[in-house]
Amino acid sequence: FYEKGLEKPFREFKLEICHEVSEPKLQNYDENGRIHTVRIDRITYKEKKKYQPKPLISHTAEKEQVIKLGTTDYDDFISFINAVRDTLMNLPATVDLSTVGLNYIEEEITVDVKDEFHGILAKGDNRILQHSVLTHVYVLSFLPGLADCRLGLNDILIKGNEIVSRHDIMPTTTTKWIKLYDCQFHGAVDEEAFHSVRMVVFNPLDACKFELMRFRTVYAEKTLPFAIRTAACVRGAEVELQSWLVMSTGFSSNRDPLTQVPCEN
């Protein structure tokens, strides 16, 4: 990102709640390899009306690139992304008073859950020797006023004490419970309420995607769901590349007939 030894950074800017980190990419660098790149964008979400082919209300994102960075050092690359995400999550939960009375034509809230898995596998049988699972929960909402939202999780500590709304026709139940470790929350979350009732109570930021919480879990499987094996053969000016997708018979979802999908060569 910079030449080591520089006394001053080549650029400075202030991180704001409207900033988002893009998905990491690999791009062509030179004839010898590729480079890891990532962007920090300023995102503005707006409600728009569309009349073709029929009337429709949509919430769209307008992106403005703040900076794009790249490096060939993968460790530096991941360290930078994690540092920016940590900073964005810890920014104060400010409320724009000018939008408190704003009414949306179509109210909407979206919850995006991303699991981040890192592991070390044994050679041969692909057994998992070490692993780390970090779950990120992101929220994007278009709600009027200071909305009070509640999010329930399949937390094993509430097993047997699930809350079912009176208007639910069929109770929502789960058979897969998880134990949460090292829970971290955005400033918009009432942490005392979570520790007392294990419910995530929060006032979402208006028209702004933010990381609501993150937590760690234990990976319950002994193997990965599948593995890819590749072999290359060089014959003169031709290179023959073959890949095999090997499904794990020991993975739980691979044994569930309801989730099995036929695979074609």
UniProtKB/TrEMBL annotation:
<dbReference type="Pfam" id="PF00928">
    <property type="entry name" value="Adap_comp_sub"/>
</dbReference>
<protein>
    <submittedName>
        <fullName>Stonin 2</fullName>
    </submittedName>
</protein>
<keyword id="KW-0963">Cytoplasm</keyword>
<dbReference type="InterPro" id="IPR036168">
    <property type="entry name" value="AP2_Mu_C_sf"/>
</dbReference>
<feature type="domain" description="MHD">
    <location>
        <begin position="106"/>
        <end position="265"/>
    </location>
</feature>
<dbReference type="GO" id="GO:0005737">
    <property type="term" value="C:cytoplasm"/>
</dbReference>
<comment type="similarity">
    <text>Belongs to the Stoned B family.</text>
</comment>
<dbReference type="GO" id="GO:0006897">
    <property type="term" value="P:endocytosis"/>
</dbReference>
<dbReference type="InterPro" id="IPR050431">
    <property type="entry name" value="Adaptor_comp_med_subunit"/>
</dbReference>
<feature type="domain" description="SHD">
    <location>
        <begin position="1"/>
        <end position="99"/>
    </location>
</feature>
<dbReference type="InterPro" id="IPR028565">
    <property type="entry name" value="MHD"/>
</dbReference>
<keyword id="KW-0254">Endocytosis</keyword>
<dbReference type="InterPro" id="IPR012320">
    <property type="entry name" value="SHD_dom"/>
</dbReference>
